[in-house]
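Cast an eye over my tokenised protein here and flag anything odd:

===
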Amino acid sequence: MNAVAEIRDLRVEVDGRALVDGVSLRVTAGKVTALVGASGSGKTTTGLALLGEYPAGARVTGEVRLPGGPAGYVPQHPGTALNPARRVGALLRDIARTRVRALPRRERRAAAHQRVLRALSLAQLPDPEAVLRRYPHQLSGGQQQRVVLAQALLLGARLVVADEPTTGQDALTKQRIVDRFAAVARQGIAVVLLSHDLDVVRALADEVLVLRDGRVVESGPVDRLWPAPRRLRTAEPPATDGPTGRTGLPGAGREVLRVGGLTVRHGRTTVLRTSALTLRAGECLAVVGRSGSGKTTLARCLAGLHRGHDGELLLDGAPLPRSLRDRTRAQLAAVQYVFQDARAAFDEHRPVLAQVARTAVRLRGAAEADALAEAVTTVTGLGLTERHVRRRPAQLSGGELQRAALARALLARPRVLICDEITSGLDAVTRRGILDSLAGLLRDRRGLSLVLITHDLGTAAALATRIAVLDGGEVVEEGPARRVLTSPEHPFTVSLLETSTRAT
């Protein structure tokens, strides 16, 4: 079978450190090739090499060939690939017009629109006409992903590189994503899947390459490598005893944050409506729900990143301004946000340690030397080394950057820490390490409270004292974690638990 892409003996080195070393692979039309491995194993570096993209300052040897034609890329965080200032329809029609230039002018507009609709259909995006009228920020992460996939298909890509496409998605949405990329492969398009999710790999891939420290340590057809690749079996953390929630004492601390009657609209469409929610000192409130249910919108409202809402926010009983720009330094320090996309949250041109320390200088007035010393102490406490964080963001893995982002927020000494799907793009071992770090922070930092945005009920069970369940932009159930996870009252929560159980 003809190769769509081929890599031979690829080595990518930055500052003497090999990110990829001696990797070879052959990608064929209509097949799904999965690259799996822990955070920092070299998956993304290898995938981006197929697109001709390398880290700044990289020394590259080996050969990358794409005889099959152009390649498309679906990033882990698809919003970064979309122009926020243009409607989706304008973005896609501009691409489609480049494919119909040979037609008479009077026919081009209709032909371009039909191409857009066909691409969105293949990307399995329902109600495409409504999506075309929206801006990227008005779409859920899953919708953004399908739009980016449609872009690649419009460009005539014969190869699609999908980087952790199931990140931040619930079990039902994951299955739809598997179906979507399987449909793309049936069109004769090659797919290179970069993933830590072994269930998704088993359901979708034809061939699997296991990477560790930048080298291929195991490869072969997916059927031969399962029940799991030998080199990954020992990497999985031990199973938990099931969904029980933390055994802390909900309500033991005083009320820190209160949300009352929050309503958020995009145009005339209401995307979030909540009744009263409270957060007490030492608590972890997990906000769970499927993709597009309003979890991140709620988190952004709390952090002052989405000011277009009605309702009341109280911090220690005092009104908290809706907009970040109107909050005092003390209020900014009190409520800190850790983004899902840690890489996009750092300045690519400055060392990570300097950016972590800057929080203490800017929000607490700390001296530069004191802030740097505190930053080193905090990052090492989260499992990083000073040598790692003195590098620029491009030289750190996703898991390392996520820990650095957590450290940066902690240097503000917050009262409320909002973590938005911060473990969803990580391998099992790195995910467990970050969850353990968060549990330790709740235990050791008196007065710290956590708002955990997650689609993963297992993550909620590991940390939460209380759980709020969102569906269609509304809180349909809220209560102690143990009760919600073992005796749910709302039908949607029951279905969420059943779907999660089937997926595991």
User: Anything to note?
Assistant: Residues 105-122 form the longest helix (18 residues).
